[in-house]
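Hey, can you fold this?
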Amino acid sequence: MKLYDFDGMFDKKLSDYILNDNGKHKESEWEDLIPKLYKQFGDTFIKSVGDTPNGFYAKMSDTELVKALRTHLKQGVPVSEFLCSAIESRGAVDLLLPLLDGSGDERDYAISILGAESKALKKYMSLLIDKDSSEDLKDRCADFLKEKADEVAAEAVENYINGVEREYMLEIMSRSVIKSDKIFDILLKEFRTDPDNVPMHASYLAAYGDERALKYLLDKIDEEGVNFIEYRELKYAIEALGGEYTKTRDFSGDPYFDIVKSHEVSATDVFANLDGKN
């Protein structure tokens, strides 16, 4: 199979373009211009190829496209967005799924192209609970699982009960749209029994959207020992669920409050200076 380093070709053309630009464009302008030039390059005829990058891949079958991806990775030839876009446009899900069990590069590209594809969720969950998976890989899998939380909610509950990656499972459960007393009870129990992570568990209750949590959030925010960071997250969760907390609280001396206030003052000073004020 003939492989082309389209990104390398583009970089060469871009270098020539910048060299001949003679400083007409500022650095900030190049940041916006380069993606546009790259997109245009996809439809630019390349004599050595006999086609445009997009045209070259358009002539391939779904199987050939996925084979091209694997060959690029195996031989260390850069994979262009043109190839990835061509595969994604075909919806070649069944051909991509085996790559999730392939090399690290094959898996990473497959995840990027498949996204929150329902057929990939089972594999994402297995990667998430695999002790050998990196935190970055677990985070990527969790993000897509959260998008389809209702489809994996039962498995998330089971993993939670079995003590497997509980924090990830709580986050996934909190994104469920179809309500469940079991999930609500789990999220509420964690909120009430984990005093060291109040903001996180409050955010899960807010995301879940069950108004029954309001009573417990209001009780918690009223406690004297609540610090400023906890207070802010609790207040957000209360408002997200349609409630309101109007009691005035004094956080003078709270280290978190002092840090936040000092940052706010710094930001105010910056903007004042930008306006030419003292």
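Oh, and this one too while you're at it.
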Amino acid sequence: MIWRTMRYTRILLAESRKTFLPLIVAQAICATALNVMISNTLHDFALTSFDHAIWLLQDRWGLSLLWFVTPALEIVCLISLSKQPFGAPLIVGLASRKAQCAGLLGAATIIGALFGCSMWLQTWSISLVSEIEFSNVSSPTSLYALFTGAPMAQSPEPSYILGVTLTVCIAVSITYALVASLAISLMSHPMPLLVGTILVGIPNIRGILPSIMRSTSVDYNSWQLSSNHGLWLQLFFCMLTIAIGFAAYTRIDYSSTRRK
């Protein structure tokens, strides 16, 4: 099963390259445009690279690169992949529906991880180019102190900040990709769920909903000593989505020449 799963995953990833690269370019353009908006909005403050990254990735302001732009691009990529022709010869070669489902989830996981890594690279490339100072969270005049009420006693190491943001970007991106992949595969009309998945990344729309989107966060409050970034909970969401996928694999119809 492992060999068949890897084979199917490679087939899916090979097909996704046609759409993936243009979407990465679109992601970079959106990241640059959002960063310009952030600079114009916060022009009265002494910004650092840390501030630029937080405002690009947090879910409390604007069209977040993490919670809105990247999920939308992932869904476009997965929908495009679902339109590719996969017929009986592939089924005969793979045989096992579990292998097919595992391959589908594996491809979605890898696509999500790639979008997450790309988002992280773009975020920090733009942030580091925009500002000379990396972080000033220990200063009482910092944006961190403004939003949390007090500065940090000591600024975290840059390697720690970079590592946390990378983990969050990958974890959230994978979760979105898995949810979208399952919706496309298991639902006759997945578009309402997909559109809703994107729209909950807009703060004004999500305002009346529980703060589940903030369970994994890199906003200012998440860096306080009494807080955390919710990485374990996000890992749980990933595992839960994969488990749902395997539990529902018998509903996926691979018998047609094109997947829905």
